Amino acid sequence: MTFPHVAGLARFRSLTFWLGMLNLPGLAGAAACDTQSYLANGTATYQMVSPAGTSTIVNKAVVKGSSIQVTSTIDGKPTTVVWNCTAKGMTASLPTGKAAASFDLGFLPPSSAWKLGYSWTSTGKISGMAGMTITTTTQSRIAAAERITTPAGTFNTLRVESATATRMQPPSGTKLPEGMDAAALSKAMNRTSKSTTWYAKGVGTVRTTVPESKFTMTLIKFSR
């Protein structure tokens, strides 16, 4: 088996990022996953800006019993992730069966914990994609209360600063590309990135920035 092309790595990182950044709604009546105050059921439209250009993503979240179905559409291409509230917390899966993601209890903390200075750690795992396994560990902290304005309106928000370590393990028997040694492979597959996200109560994610990749995501419209 040969190692995936660099473009493949980019796709893996993109999926990891979006599993973390999806504007998930809360689950009414599910105390173990009570994040409803800072996550919202509805349709959120975002503008994404990166070195690759500007694009739009529309997240439509629908609560169905103890599950949440989130369909994200980018450039006319939809991807649906189903989140389930279990005793362990929020777990997610892609209905296509091509990948699976799981997160520990409180990927986002319950609404009662959203106070200045509060911090938490969440982990994620994606497997089953061409034999690739991706794990993430995110350390987050509520750093400040700020009032910010976007095209969707003006919001009172809490600013959350996060550092995410991503580790990718290639399939067994993988052969290194010509000219790449083990150190270069490790650097390409394992990295830590910092991001900042502003959350508004009753709305969810209002803005996200990832300085390292010159990426921003801004809420431009929200409806229930």
Task: Report what the structure shows.
The protein has a single domain, classed as Beta Barrel (YmcC-like fold), CATH 2.40.360. Helices cover 11% and strands 54% of the residues. The model is unreliable at 1-32 and 102-106 (pLDDT under 50). The chain has helices spanning 6-21, 182-189, and strands spanning 43-50, 53-64, 67-74, 77-86, 89-93, 100-103, 119-129, 132-150, 153-169, 190-200, 204-210, 215-223. The chain has a twelve-stranded antiparallel beta barrel. It has 224 residues and is mainly beta. The protein is globular.
In short:
With 224 residues, the protein is mainly beta.
Keyword list:
single chain; 224 residues; mainly beta; YmcC-like fold; 12-stranded antiparallel barrel; 2 helices
Largest sheet: 12 strands, antiparallel, barrel
Our count of helices gives 2
The amount of beta strand, in percent, is: over 45%
Structural Rg: 18 Å
Low-confidence segments, given as residue ranges, are: 1-32, 102-106
The helix content, as a percent range, equals 10-25%
**What is the number of beta strands?**
12
**From the structure provided, what is the oligomeric state, counting identical versus distinct chains?**
single chain
- Tell me the name of the CATH class: Mainly Beta
Structural class: mainly beta
Summed over residues and divided by their number, the pLDDT gives a mean of: 74
Q: Under the CATH scheme, which architecture would be assigned?
A: Beta Barrel
Q: What order do the strands of the largest sheet run in, or round the barrel if closed?
A: 1-2-3-4-5-6-7-8-9-10-11-12
> Which fold does the CATH topology refer to?
YmcC-like fold
Number of domains: 1
- Distance between the amino and carboxyl termini: 47 Å
